[in-house]
Amino acid sequence: MNKDYTFTMKICDNEIDQDNERFSSNCLDRLAQLFIGKAGYIGGSQLSKIVSVEVVEEEDRWATMHEHYKWLKATATIPRTCETEELIRQIELGERYKVNIGCAVNTKTCSICGNTDGRCNHKPGEYYGGALCYTTLDDPTQVYEWSFVDQEKKVSNLNNPRICEILGVEIGEEFTYPGMSCSFRITESGFIKCSDGDIKMCVPTLINFPEKIIHLPHWTTEEVNRAQNLLETIGDGELKQVGDMTTLKVDGKIIYLRKGAFPTLKPERSTTLSSIAKV
């Protein structure tokens, strides 16, 4: 008698998700190979494993980006034990059908300008000339794991994932950490997104020492434009807020800007024009 329960599920597709990201068709083809053998979790327990993945293309359905809708259909197994009995029941009743995935990609393309190095000023989720800005993910390098979404918990904690409370950050807030080269943010699903891929080694550090987290300012569009204009006219320099004055140090010279030029910059804090303009 087979002691394993076998089922199928959708693990990802080429539609724009709630984080304003989408997988390219080529990315899905590669992910189909990388997901084979990967473990699935619920809570902190490893309860399932993917044994095969099929790329499904629906010719009578179109994705948002005017291409045929494609998704990955995974076949997975779960050992039949007392621990998994309730989970299997939920899967059979259709109560447990959504999953979250963790993977790393080499290429992230802005839909507005085609930039792939993350240095443009377009923000996913915002509209430019009537066009939605989103990021297309391609060239996957690694799949970490996948997990079942707890439907009830996801709804009740949608606006305040537990990890936000632990780290003391808000959903979507960008932050850094001493000694780490990348920046981070928490998604609405409670996952950590980082700029350079693998996050496994840094997560315990962030959780164990949240007092060291450096909160990065969320610059307004006006401030970004002002920084770009200053960069083009006088070059890069260090901005500093001292009292109600904003100073700009360029090539050793101090320039005093008008009051309120960069209101997001906190007193006694400094930054550079290039970091605001992200160039």
Describe this entry's structure for a reader.
The protein has seven helices and 17 strands. The protein is elongated and about 75 Å long. The chain has helices at residues 25-34, 85-92, 151-156, 162-167, 202-208, 221-234, 273-277; strands at 4-13, 21-23, 39-42, 45-62, 68-79, 99-110, 127-128, 131-132, 135-148, 175-176, 184-186, 192-194, 214-215, 238-242, 245-250, 253-257, 270-272.
Fraction of residues in β-strands: 35-45%
Q: Could you give a short account of the major beta sheet?
A: 7 strands, mixed
| Number of DSSP E strands | 17
Based on CA atoms alone, the radius of gyration comes out at 22 Å
Measured as a percent range, the helix fraction is 10-25%
Sequence-ordered SSE layout with sheet pairings:
Layout: E1 4-13, E2 21-23, H1 25-34, E3 39-42, E4 45-62, E5 68-79, H2 85-92, E6 99-110, E7 127-128, E8 131-132, E9 135-148, H3 151-156, H4 162-167, E10 175-176, E11 184-186, E12 192-194, H5 202-208, E13 214-215, H6 221-234, E14 238-242, E15 245-250, E16 253-257, E17 270-272, H7 273-277
Parallel strand pairs: 2-9, 3-9
Antiparallel strand pairs: 1-5, 3-4, 4-5, 6-9, 7-8, 10-13, 11-12, 14-15, 14-17, 15-16
